[in-house]
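Forum: Protein Structure Q&A
Topic: Joint prediction for protein chains with partners

I've read a bunch of threads here and the consensus seems to be that you should model interacting components together rather than docking separate models afterwards. I'd like to see that in practice. Below is the full input, 377 residues plus whatever partners are listed. Could one of the regulars post the assembled result?
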Amino acid sequence: AVLKKRLVKLVVNFLFYFRTDEAEPIGALLLEHCRVTKEEENVFSISFIEEPERKYCFECDSEEQCQEWVEALKRASYEFMRRSLIFYRNEIQKMTGKDPLEQYGISEEARFQLGAHKD
Amino acid sequence: MKLNERSLAFYATCDSPADNAGFLYKRGERHTAYHRRWFVLKGNMLFYFEERESREPVGVIVLEGCTVELCDSAEEFAFAIRFGGAKSRTYVLAAESQAAMESWVKSLSRASFDYMRLVVRELEKQLEEMRWGPAGGCGGCQGSAGSWKPKTLGLECSPERLPALPAVLPKENGCAVWNNAPGEDLLPNTSGCDGHDDEGNPRPPPLPPRRQASSSEASSARAAMAESPSTFCRLHERYGREVARLRQDWLERRRGHR
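Posted by a regular:
Agreed with the consensus. Here's the joint model:
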C-alpha cells in the first residue's frame, strides 16, 4: 500500500482529508459506528462496522501524535457524545434529584432519552 | 468530494434510534415542485429516502452551521434549512400538519454537533463542580462558575439560549457520593464502536474530550483548552482513580449478584 501525505482535519464527526497544497478536501469520512485502532508504531486505523476488514490507515510523525489522534477520534462521533450526555445527565440526577436539562427546557427531547424510540 | 457513502447509508438505516422521522415535502432545486420523501434525522444528519421502505437514502443534509426557520411559501407548514455562504443552498421543506412542522423545526434546530457538544460540556462542568467544588476548589480553573456564555456557533439553530449556571452547589466532603447502582446502558464506552470494549465490559465514563486543534473548530473548543493543562491533568488523575474504584465496586457487586 502506498502512503500519501495528506492534511487531515477533524471537524465535528467528519474526518476531512486534503492534498497538502489544496484548499478543498479530496474527501471525508463520517465517523459514526467506526472503530479506531492503534496499529504499529505511529500508525492507527479506522474501520467501519459494516465493512470491518477495510482499514483506513494513517501514519503519524510521532507516537505522541498518534495517541492524540486515536483519543480524539474515539470521541468524535455524535453517538459517543449522546451517550456521554445521557450518562452525565443521569449522574447529576442521582446526585441532586433534579434533571439538569430541565432548566434548559430540553428534558423531553427525543435525542436525550435513554432508550429513544423510533416513530 | 469523496464520502464513505456506505457508512453513511449504514448510519441512516441501522437500528440506532432516530431523533425524528416522517414524511416531508421537499422542494426541488431547479424546479419548484415539491416531492414527498421519507426523512430520518439521526444526530446531525438529515437523511431522505424516496420511499419509507427504501434501503438507501437518496440524499443527506449535514446540519452544521445552519438556521432553521419558518418560511413564507404557498405551501402550508413550510420551513427552511438555511446555510450561510454565497454558494450555499436553502432547503425548503413542508410538513403535513402544524404539529409535525413544529416538531421538525424543534428537532432540526437542536440537531447540530456543536449544540450537543455545548450541552455535554455544560453537564460535564456541573458534574465536575459537584464533585471537586467550584472554581476555588480546583486551584486553577478560571472563575466562570457563576455565569456561562454560550458560544454563538450552532446556537443560531436553537430557539432558546442556555441560561447561566446555577449558584454554587453544596459541597460534599470533597468526595461526591455516587449512587452505586448503575445500569449497563448508562456507562458509555470510549471506543468509537457501539457496545463494549474487547473484554465485553462497558467502559468507564469518558474524560473531558480533547480535540485536535484545527482552525475550523468552533471557538468553544479553544475556550475549554485555555485552562492550564496541569489543572486538567490533576482533574483527570483524580477523576480516573475515582472511576477505576467505582468500576471495581460495580463489577464486584455484579459478580456478587450472580
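The helical segments of chain A are 63-74, 78-96.
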